[in-house]
Structures are given as C-alpha cells and as structure tokens.
Specification:
With 290 residues, the chain is of the alpha/beta class. It is built from eleven helices and nine strands. Strand 8 and strand 9 form a beta hairpin. The N terminus is likely disordered. The structure holds uracil. The site of uracil has 12 residues, from loops.
C-alpha cells in the first residue's frame, strides 16, 4: 500500500474486469480519474478502508459523510413518492405516453411550467435508451440549455471521465435530469418544481426500464427517494426506486460532478461509488446476459 500526502492508503486497479476491451482513451480517462481521486500506485483491487476525517461538507447538503467502509444496505424507497401538488398538470398526459418519443413530444407540448418560458431548449435526454443504466441529474445548466442535451458542459466532461473510468460512455448509458428546463441563473429547483417533474421522471424511468439508476447529486437523489437525507449520507450504498408497474430498480446516489469540481478532495468518495456501480453492472450482466 502507498501512502499519499494525506497519510491515507490508496489503491488503483486497471482495466475494469468487466470491460477488458477498453480503448486507450478510456484507459487514460480511467487513470486520470483514479489519480484525481487520490490513487497513486498500482496495488490491488480492494477499496481503501480508512474513513476520511476531513471530508468536506456539501454546502447545499448534509454535512456528515458516510464512512468509507459502510456496509451496503438496501433501503426501500420510492414507494413514498409524494404526489405532485399539480396532478392536473402532469398526471394524465404523462401516463398516456406509451413510448419515449411520445413522452418527449408530450413534454415539449406541456405549457404548465414557467421554466419553459425562460429556457432556450427543452433538455430531454442523451445516450442509449436501450441501456441497462440510467443516470439522473438535477436540471440543465447554461450549456445544456443552449445545446438541448444533458451534461454537455464542464460537469458533463467530468461525468464522461467518471463513466470512462468504469468502462461506460454515452453509447452505453442513458442520461436525463429531474427538470427538463433550465432554472434561470442555474438556481436550485424549488420543491414545487421538483414535485411537478416527479411524475415525468417516474414515467421516463418506467419507459426506459433500466436495470440500475444512478442519481447524480443530492437534488436528484432526494427527489426520487422522497427523503430529506443529505447526499453524503445517501451515497455509498444501494437503495431501491419503486417506479411502479412492478419495477423496483436498484438505485445508487452519488456526488454530482459539479460538486466534485468544487470539492476535488471528494473524488475518492465518487470513485468508491463508481466501483460499486461497476461491480453491480457486471453482476447484472453475468446473471442476465444479452
Ligand atoms: N447539472 C445537471 O444536474 N444536469 C445537467 O444536465 C448539467 C449540469
């Protein structure tokens, strides 16, 4: 084991065992992200066992980090989804959409949200709708609003590196946000806005039928799990999202790339989550080969 300048042991592993065919670019992204996450030597494939005592608090979220060696727990959630305070706005037309194209068109036609008036584009999704893995962020930012695609700005670039570090890219994941239009000035979505969009993201998930969901950041995690617990407590363990229609989907909250850009010392926690994700996806593949 090697000790880094924070006197903590770090490990590194390459290439991911579930994807031995990584391209040189993916391998470089993997190495880069692992080094940013604190890895400094090729040792073994076990995660560090010591908990950081200096973990930074997410300003917008709970300040207590989950211990790094916290056992994996499954928490039933999603069943507790709060009904939209405006069910008349989204209830019927959302459920009437029977495929993704219909849902996207219905959302484009929806005039019940003021965010649409200030946004340039609706940001529906990117990636592969056939994917087993669906990522859900908070809301489009300025770059996404301009281009009409989620995670295409600097956060998106970091997200791409995080995905590449476990052998995924935009052809092998499906990405969306809770909100489909950018809140002006990138302000945090209000509870009314997230409640309004909840039936839409729930239907979106029902139609994609992913085998696993990753919530990027506290806003997405808290909205979908219907909890006020902070992301630093929610991350690091598997939960379940009950999408209805008999779909109970493994759900992993992790840190938002924008937060990681502000607090790079937390990348080690994201790397821990990514490893959990990689292992779960490899298990899923093994038990349900295409
Ligand atoms: N942050 C998000 O949560 N979503 C995006 O699409 C971009 C930045």
């Amino acid at each position: 084991m090697a000790e880094n300048r924070h006197n903590r042991t770090e490990t590194i592993i390459m290439p991911p065992e579930n994807n031995p065919d990584m391209t040189p670019q993916q391998l470089l992204a993997l190495l880069r992200f692992q080094m940013e996450a604190g890895a400094d030597e090729a040792i073994d494939d076990e995660p560090p066992v010591s908990a950081p005592t200096h973990a930074l608090a997410d300003a917008a979220d709970a300040p207590v980090p989950a211990p790094m060696n916290e056992p994996v727990q499954t928490v039933q959630a999603g069943a507790a989804i709060t009904p939209s305070p405006h069910p008349q706005h989204t209830g019927n037309w959302v459920d009437a959409a029977t495929d993704l194209a219909a849902l996207e068109q219905a959302c484009a036609d929806f005039d019940g949200c003021d965010l649409k008036k200030t946004a340039t584009n609706m940001v529906f999704s990117d990636g592969n709708p056939q994917s087993d893995l669906m990522l859900v962020g908070e809301a489009p930012g300025a770059d996404e609003d301009r281009k009409g695609k989620p995670f295409v700005g600097v956060s998106g670039q970091l997200l791409d590196r995080m995905l590449a570090s476990i052998g995924f890219d935009r052809t092998s994941v499906y990405i969306t946000n809770i909100l489909l239009w950018r809140p002006p000035g990138n302000r945090t979505p209000t509870p009314e806005e997230t409640a309004l969009f909840l039936p839409i993201i729930k239907r979106h998930i029902q139609l994609v039928k992913p085998k696993a969901i990753v919530a990027l950041g506290g806003s997405a995690a808290k909205t979908l799990l219907a909890t006020n617990e902070g992301i630093l407590k929610l991350r690091g363990r598997w939960h379940e999202f009950d999408a209805g229609q008999g779909q109970v989907i493994p759900f992993l909250p992790t840190l938002h790339p924008a937060y990681l850009l502000r607090s790079p010392g937390q990348k080690q926690l994201a790397w821990q989550d990514l490893r959990m994700l990689r292992n779960r996806m490899a298990d899923l593949k093994q038990h349900n080969p295409a």
